[in-house]
């Protein structure tokens, strides 16, 4: 995964973190995939 993808993941994660509590599930899924991608590097 290159830097651009990493940056996009970060922005999306940041947005979800500050959105309403209804996105808790999406945030968890995104966080999970984020760390999985990070581990691949």
Give the helices and strands, then pairings.
Elements: H1 3-17, H2 24-40
Give a nutshell description of this structure.
The protein is mainly α and 41 residues long.
Sum up the overall morphology in one term. Answer: flat
Main beta sheet strand tally, sense and closure? none
* Range of helix content: over 70%
Q: Enumerate how many helices there are, as a single number.
A: 2
Cα(first) to Cα(last) distance is 7 Å
- Strand share of the residues? under 5%
Radius of gyration: 11 Å
Mean pLDDT: 74
H/E topology pattern: HH
Low-confidence runs of at least 5 consecutive residues: none
Integer count of domains? 1
- Label the structural class: mainly alpha
Q: What's the total number of strands?
A: 0
Index terms:
41 residues, single chain, mainly alpha, 2 helices
Detailed description of the structure:
The chain has one domain. The chain is mainly α and 41 residues long. The mean pLDDT is 74. It is built from two helices and no strands. The protein starts with a helix and ends with a helix. Helix content is 78%, strand content 0%.
């Amino acid at each position: 995964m290159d830097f651009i993808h990493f940056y996009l993941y970060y922005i999306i994660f940041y947005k979800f973190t500050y959105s309403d509590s209804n996105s808790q599930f999406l945030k968890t899924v995104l966080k999970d995939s984020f760390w999985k991608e990070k581990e691949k590097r």
